[in-house]
Structures are given as structure tokens and as C-alpha cells.
Amino acid sequence: MKLTGVELRHIAMPLVAPFRTSFGSQTTRDVLLVRVVTDEAEGWGECVAMTEPLYSSEYVEGAADVLRRFLVPALAAAGPLEAQLVAPVLEPIRGHRMAKAALEAAVLDAELRATGRSFARELGAVHERVPCGVSVGIMDSIPALLDAVGGYLDEGYLRIKLKIEPGWDIEPVRAVRERFGDDVLLQVDANTAYTIADARHLAQLDAFGLLLIEQPLDEEDVLGHADLAKLINTPVCLDESITSARSAAAAIRMGACDVVNIKPGRVGGYLEARRIHDVCVAHGIPVWCGGMLETGIGRAGNVALAALPGFTLPGDTSGSSRYYRTDITEPFVLEDGHLAVPTGAGLGVVPVAERLEEVTTGMEWLAV
Ligand code: OSB
Ligand code: MG
């Protein structure tokens, strides 16, 4: 394929309810979409960077800047366009994995559309539908939390993840267990809000039979997670710390994770996400597909990835309605706690033009 140009499109998507984590509260999701146009087809990618650099160092305007100034020019200068070559071509530019992932996804989508293959087929999916969990934000009160969890269970979600932080951890977990019973698949996500000094406190979670505790400590504190894993019985899962197949291999060898959350956007793309999956499978480490409040564009790819054989735990692959009243694509709808893996060429979904116009806040065309 030959690259014709790249569109960077900013959209603002109102969330159905505020989403609060240990790093902040959000009411709107600002998303950067990348549209790659080639001589054969066009493709879409969604950048998972958030408005502010609070989950990771990347943020929407920073991602747009590095795409405009460095990534797109490097790709344009590289000769024939091929998804497998995007990461190697961009490798000299350090970091910026979320920006790189969006560009690679768009190229992969274009390539697969041109050849009529799906993301699922290309990545090695083995299931036609994937079981879905839901990530439940920090609430103002326990009754509000129980209402929210009860609503999601009624909708059919097969696993509940509670966001936790110091002051909102043991009691909310206890309350959910008491109300909904021991059979509910339940896990927690701290988004780095604790230190190793909290080990004894976190060991109180052992009583509740959680599937895992996600990223309790700092992104760089992989060794701390290995120490913590020896002090608590709840399996330790890494999210923020896993940035590549190499970092996953090191974390596993160190004993820092029993489980891995794979987010394609965080690790530089779907192809690196598959390599992380392969490393984890080889080590007997279960993986699940994380989320970053994606629109239907990112969700389509995530659902395809979640259908690989090593994804043995339900992911944060919720239905569109968990996040948005109106998605930019045809909505992903939960059926019996599952989402169907798209089968069409490429991502199998495209933005609905009128809907996209409604939410667009800025657009820029990078001609090649
Ligand atoms: O840590 O998994 C996380 C959302 C934004 C940033 C980080 C995280 C999350 C979620 C929600 O937990 C996942 C989702 O449903 O998309
Ligand atoms: Mg997380």
C-alpha cells in the first residue's frame, strides 16, 4: 500500500455517568481518532490517551503532537506501507506507545480491509464471542455502589471490577460480597494508589476471594509488586507496568504478576499485544483484555483480541451503553454477558458519518 495522508480527528464523547478512579474523575471522554488513507483502502485507529497525563504519561494533545511532528512523517518516509513494519519504522522514536498504537491500528485496518480479512482472523482469534466484565468507578457511598453493581449484574455482566483507593477498598468489597454473594466474579483495580507499606492493609482483601488485585503499586515498582505478591493471597495483576512483551517477560520472571491486563493502546498496538499474550501463555499466566473507555472503533479491535486462546478471564470489554448513550459506530450490545467478535473486513465497524460530525471538536489533515 501507499500512504496518501492521515487525518487526526478530535471527538468529545459525554459519558453516561461520571467515571471516578484513584487518579481522577471524568465526565467526558476526549478521543483522538486516526484515519489512514492509502491507495488501496482507508483504516481507523483510536488513541487511548486521556485528556490529562494521570493514568500514564501520554495525553491527547501530546499524542496528536507526536503523530503530526514525528510518527506520521517517519511512516510517510518509509516506503511501502505495511502494518507489520509500522512498529519497526517508529522504533527510533522513544515511547509514545498510545500514539503509535493508534497509527498502527489504522494501518492494520486499512491493510485488512484491502484484503478482506478481519482483525480476529489476523490476530488468531479462536472464539466467536467473548465474556464481558465491567469496571465500576469509585462512588460517593456504599448504597450508590450497590445500586450500580446490581444494575450491571442485571444487565448480564459476568465479572465486576471495583476501582479502589485508600479509604475506599475493604468496605466496598465487603458490601458487594455481602449483597451479591460469593459466586460473583469480583476483582479490584487500584491504579497505583498504594505503596508496599500498605501490604498488611491490602491483605485484608484476602478474605473476599477476589480474582485479582490490579496494579496496586507505582507503574515503575515492578519489584514492589513481587514483594507484595508474597505478602497477600489475592493474585496480583499488572496493568500500567506492562508496556511491552519484554516488560511482561521480566515482570513474570520477577514474580511480580500472576495475571496480566493487556491493553493494545498501552503497549504500542495490537501486534505487540499479541506478543504479550504469547509470552503469558508460554508462562501459564492468564490474561484479560483491559479497556480505556473506547468508542466502537477501539472496542472492535479489543473484542477481536480478547478472542485469542490465552484470554481466559472476562475483560473490560463492556457494551457501548456502559459508556455512551450513542456510540460513533453501530453499538456493541451485550448478549447473555458476551459481545460478538466482529467478522467483517478490518475492524468490521466504521464510524457513522453523521454521528461522527456531531461529536467532532477538531480535525487536521496531514498530507503525504
Ligand atoms: O485502569 O483499567 C484501568 C479506564 C481508564 C483508564 C484506566 C482504566 C480504566 C478502566 C475502565 O478500568 C476500563 C473500560 O471499561 O474501558
Ligand atoms: Mg487498570
What are its keywords?
13 strands; 368 residues; globular; four-stranded antiparallel beta sheet; binds 2-succinylbenzoate; Enolase-like, domain 1; TIM Barrel; alpha/beta; binds magnesium ion
Description:
The structure is a single chain. The chain is α/β, with parallel strands linked by helices. The chain has two domains: 3-116 and 350-367, Enolase-like, domain 1 (2-Layer Sandwich); 121-340, TIM Barrel. Helix content is 35%, strand content 21%. It has a seven-stranded parallel beta sheet with strand order 5-6-7-8-9-10-11. The radius of gyration is 20 Å and the shape is globular. The two termini are 13 Å apart. The model has no long low-confidence stretch (mean pLDDT 98). The protein binds 2-succinylbenzoate and magnesium ion (MG). The site of 2-succinylbenzoate has 11 residues, from loops. Residues 189, 191, 214-215, 239, 261, 290 line the site of magnesium ion (MG).
Please give the number of β-strands: 13
Q: What is the correct CATH architecture of the largest domain?
A: Alpha-Beta Barrel
- Placed side by side, the strands forming the largest sheet appear as 5-6-7-8-9-10-11
Q: Termini distance?
A: 13 Å
Class from helix and strand fractions: alpha/beta
Shape: globular
Summarize this entry quickly:
The protein is an alpha/beta fold and 368 residues long. It has helices at 60-76, 83-90, 97-115, 119-123, 142-155, 170-180, 199-202, 222-231, 245-254, 270-282, 296-305, 353-359, and strands at residues 3-21, 24-38, 42-47, 129-131, 133-136, 159-163, 186-189, 213-214, 236-238, 259-262, 287-289, 338-340, 360-367. It folds into 2 domains: 3-116 and 350-367, Enolase-like, domain 1, CATH 3.30.390.10; 121-340, Enolase-like C-terminal domain (TIM Barrel, Alpha-Beta Barrel).
